[in-house]
Description:
Elements: H1 6-17, E1 30-31, H2 33-43, H3 45-57, H4 60-65, E2 71-77, E3 93-102, H5 107-173, H6 179-213, E4 224-225, H7 237-247, H8 249-270, E5 275-285, E6 291-299, H9 308-374, H10 380-415
Amino acid sequence: MGKWTTMSMLSGLTLVSAMPVPAGLPAEEPVALAAVVEEAVQRNPELQASKAMYEASTFRPSQEGALPDPTIGIMSTSMTNPIPLYYADPIANVAIRASQEIPYPGKRRLASEAAKLESEALEQSYQARRLAVIAWAKEAYFAIAYYDRALRLLGENLVLLDELSRAAQTRYAVGTSSQQDVLRAQTEISVLTARKVAIEQQRQAAVARLNGLLNRPAGTPFGTPVDYPIPALPPLAADLREGARARSPELRARQLDLDAAAAKLELAKKQLMPDFMLGASYGYSREYRDMWQLNLDLKVPLYRREKQKMGIQEETRNVEVARRELDGALQTVTAGIEEQYAMAAAAWRLITLYDSGIIPQARLTLEASLSSYKVGEVDFLTVVTNFISVLEYRMNYYEQVSDYQKALSQIEQLAATELLSTQATTENKS
């Protein structure tokens, strides 16, 4: 054992267990949350596809509001041959004609309005997707931060347990300790090693999810998340729900879908009215005067029972679908806020409890057991048990911090409000 003795290691145990845990592994480069969020917004494939879809839709209203393309043609008239024979047929002529279809007043406006509302809905859907991508990026980031803290904490405690195990073996060899002490220390080492392996796998899975979100190649390593201050619990869930009604892009998108469906219903009703066709032609004849012709045609909705009225029924159902989707989106948003707020509130209470009560008390218990062990009042197993308890409580604390941050990320998405700061801090509690 060299200069180390069992007592000196156990005394040092209290100091190490009370040390703050760095945010991640020192060998990795620190990664700021703001940089991850920015990369997700810029590179996420689904988000970019949603943006392109919205941008494409902005060209639709102009098309829907434009007049139908006119028609231009040439017509020949002859008594003897389809091809005018001016030297043989004195009444042969050639005419140039043009016509323009004019929809019934209001149709173009409604079609353009519906397309504009659909484009605005797609823009809001893009904004909703953007908030979702940001929330997913933050969740993955805070999960990785927890895994890094847990791995660092387990690594430090494995070193201490290994030293304790060596000390127990030495004492057992000289008859001042029992074999049970050795076996218990070795068992705890195995348990923590298995736990470390499991958390390493979970970190790899979280990094893989984040790489996919950021459109990075599979296997791209991820550095150490930076520490961020833990914000206080936000206002009441009712306040967040009310704010979401006004700010949520998802709700605005569904409302715009409903407005677009209503405009399409009005357009379907307008289809019962006839469209107009205006035309004009000019004819040239060798023997007679030039001829001019004007015409007005009506596009009569003769088969309205099979076509136009069926279209009205279809758009009526589409309005009902859009209304139900708006109601469903509202329920999803409000219920989601309620659920995530309950999770955040529970995590916040546990964070406070661990930080101000459980962990300090467990440390005092460990220190007391160390003092008692020195004078033979408690056995080695009691010290190890108290040591493991401090480790478990600190692990639980960091897990609750991660759960709290992830719940706030979800609330940010649902309520379209910022709750988590991206300003790093050097503070590290518990």
